[in-house]
Amino acid sequence: MRLAGKVAVVTGGTRGLGRAIAERFLDEGASVVCAARNPYDIVELIDRAPGRVAFHAVDVTDPDSVVELMDQSVEAFGGLDIVVANAAVSRDGKVERLDPRDWRQMVDTNLNGVFYSTQAAAKHMIARGGGHIITVSSCMASRVAVGAAGYAATKAAVEMFTRTSAIELGRKGVRVNCLAPGVLDGGMGEQLADNDKVWAVYKERFSLGRAGRLDEAADGALFLASEASSYVNGHVLEVNGGLLWA
Length: 246
Description:
The chain is of the alpha/beta class. The chain contains eight helices and seven strands; from the N terminus they run E-H-E-H-E-H-E-H-E-H-E-H-H-H-E. The N and C termini lie far apart (41 Å).
């Protein structure tokens, strides 16, 4: 129970990696607010940990919506210790044909959403005496993938935003680190696996011979959220099994 008594908010927390992180935090004793546009099957989580789970509808591209999320999470559970800024979207397209609307959606969600979440959470954490903020990047932040200019650019920006925030907030008791998963067997990775042509290329890049599991990436988030990482700040933790990239 490494997170017993802690209060966590996970954006994009109702499915994919966010859902796996929420489940891991619950198993370790935290109270968790799963924030997303849609609740999906949130009832299963509520039944799993009665009294320690809440759903809050949020639009991470709207700073007022994010401020309301953090304020109401504090009101519901009495504080805020951990925030995982996980909500993200991916829109494929080579540069010359990428729709500007898709580009803006990725920047608004993947980058601006992380900024709004960090800013709104930091206020509460500083007042509380400390906390942990975990941003979520991707293996594509540091590796070139044709057709992923928008997604990769936003994730690379998230990593530098994380490092800068860590320096600014560290002396105020707030640690900021980044989780950078590789290709996983759920969420966006699952969509990749459904494309036989693309998957034939990517599956050869796994040095461990397989894609990662959602729970393996969630374990990385648990490490960053717990006191096991108490002297880790501004770090990008890659959980990709030694992903090869040609």
